Amino acid sequence: MAEFVEERGGKVVGLTSTKGYSYEGSRAERGDQFVGLALDIENQAALTNERIKNWMEVVVKEFGKK
């Protein structure tokens, strides 16, 4: 979806670091970041609330930029 948005001149916001995730690969990965918020409810459920909170802070800041 990110590529679709960018190809049409849009800007993708809400990237998150891949640090702290255990995974083999993701189509949402760009370098050392995920496009959007990645949640692992099965293996890292205890981190979910904090990850959502941190991601929302990033998104709110990015939408506030002009």
Tell me about the biggest sheet? 3 strands, antiparallel
> Based on helices, strands and strand pairing, what is the structural class?
alpha+beta
Q: How many runs of DSSP E, i.e. beta strands? A: 3
Shape: globular
- The total tally of domains equals 1
> How confident is the prediction overall: mean pLDDT?
92
Protein described:
This protein has one domain. Helix content is about 35%, strand content about 10%. The chain has two helices and three strands. The chain has helices at about 1-5, 50-65; strands at about 15, 30, 35. Strand 2 (about 30) and strand 3 (about 35) form a beta hairpin. The chain starts with a helix and ends with a helix. The model has no long low-confidence stretch (mean pLDDT about 90). Its cofactor is FMN. This is Flavodoxin 1. It comes from Geofilum rubicundum JCM 15548. Keywords: Electron transport, Flavoprotein, FMN, Transport.
Write the layout of secondary structure elements.
Elements: H1 2-7, E1 16-17, E2 29-30, E3 33-34, H2 48-64
Antiparallel strand pairs: 1-3, 2-3
Organism: Geofilum rubicundum JCM 15548
Protein name: Flavodoxin 1
Keywords: Electron transport, Flavoprotein, FMN, Transport
Short description:
Its cofactor is FMN. This protein has 66 residues and is α+β, with helices and mostly antiparallel strands.
Identify the notable features of this structure and list them briefly.
2 helices; 3 strands; 35% helix
